[in-house]
Amino acid sequence: MSSTSETSMEGDILTIDQAAAYLTISKATLYTWRTRRVGFGPRAVKVGGCLRYRRSDLDAWVAEHLETIDDVAAMAQQRAGDGVSLSRASGPRRAG
Length: 96
Prior knowledge:
Helix content is about 55%, strand content about 10%. It is mainly alpha-helical. It has a single domain, classed as Arc Repressor Mutant, subunit A (Orthogonal Bundle). A hairpin with a 2-residue loop joins strand 2 and strand 3. The relative contact order is 0.11. The N terminus is likely disordered.
């Protein structure tokens, strides 16, 4: 195997630190998704007892979780229907 292909392969398999940085989330979030929200986070593989992520699996996971315009509109309608102000929270009004 040439050094170019070795470098390419190494860049495709990421440690948990690299995967977290790639997704711009904390490493703790990846661990939480893996243990408390089983099946939610990106697919991982254990290599020598250590978690590794394929860059292609991270990209696929991001693509699966893209919000559509319809999703955003539905969230806005739901918030408006709940009577929730999107500006600032206010407490009960005081009389006089």
